[in-house]
Specification:
The protein has about 250 residues and is of the alpha/beta class. The chain is about 45% helix and about 15% strand. It has one domain: Rossmann fold. Helix 1 (about 15-25) packs across helix 8 (about 225-235).
Length: about 250
């Protein structure tokens, strides 16, 4: 009897880092459910890329700024699992969906703080909690953090604070979900040239040059520098990595 195909959920998997995570995971022979906030066209394009690899893929809308939408999303995922895979379980949860803004501490508003809290911490906390009963033994949770929890970059006080909370949360996931056979790790990218945060690095040659100079390898990251590491954590080769923060930054500020 053939082994059951494994399934990963990648939030924010329609573009940028999430798209590369989703396609890299598919290249490992894993099917993918990915989410998008507003750009359905990009999400469907990513679905087609994964299908071209030979894996199943589905895109479902999810707005992490609205924590009341999480229950509905979980229900949609369970329906999709039943329809497309004839199961109510999956193997890997990649909490990647995020938002970016470079805002000096003195200019941060309470509304902005609340949006970052919902997207980068509260939403992930409760989405993960609601999904745990459906994660197979041997499954893993991979939370995406940031190099800015290790080194300070002006304008990232809110973003990095929420990511710091996620890193602590991940250790507790590893500790408390271990008896269920579920592992949890953090992947923390350094500066990456994508359209994240209004393509801040891609559209600013001075910023890109400055960040590149801080890295021993002399460049900023690309999306496929990150996705391959997330995909590795979804394989059996990574089975003994648990409760860890893996920084994928080219050694910036080492």
């Amino acid at each position: 009897m053939a082994a059951q195909t494994k399934i990963a959920i990648v939030t924010g998997g329609s573009r940028g880092l999430g798209k590369d995570m989703a396609t890299s995971i598919a290249l490992k022979g894993i099917d993918v459910i990915l989410t998008y906030r507003s750009n359905e066209a990009d999400a469907l394009q990513t679905v087609q890329s994964i299908k071209a690899i030979g894996q199943k893929a589905v895109a479902i809308q999810l707005d992490m700024t609205d924590s009341t939408s999480i229950d509905r999303f979980v229900q949609q995922v369970l329906e999709s699992l039943q329809t497309n895979w004839n199961t109510d379980r999956f193997d890997f949860l990649v909490n990647n969906a995020g938002m970016g803004a470079t805002v000096p501490f003195l200019e941060v508003t309470e509304a902005m703080f609340t949006d970052f809290l919902n997207v980068h911490f509260k939403g992930i906390y409760f989405l993960t909690q609601k999904f745990v009963p459906y994660i197979n033994e041997g499954g893993r949770i991979i939370n995406i953090s940031s190099g800015t929890t290790r080194f300070a970059h002006p304008g990232y006080s809110v973003y990095a604070s929420m990511k710091g909370a996620i890193e602590t949360f991940t250790k507790y996931l590893a500790k408390e979900l271990g008896p269920k056979g579920i592992g949890a790790n953090v992947v923390a990218p350094g500066p990456v040239e994508t359209d994240f945060n209004n393509a801040a690095i891609r559209t600013n040659p001075q910023m890109k040059a400055a960040l590149s100079s801080l890295t021993p390898l002399g460049r900023v990251g690309a999306a496929n520098d990150i996705g391959s590491v997330v995909a590795f954590l979804c394989t059996d080769d990574a089975r003994w990595i648990n409760g860890q923060r893996i920084e994928v930054s080219g050694g910036i500020n080492v």
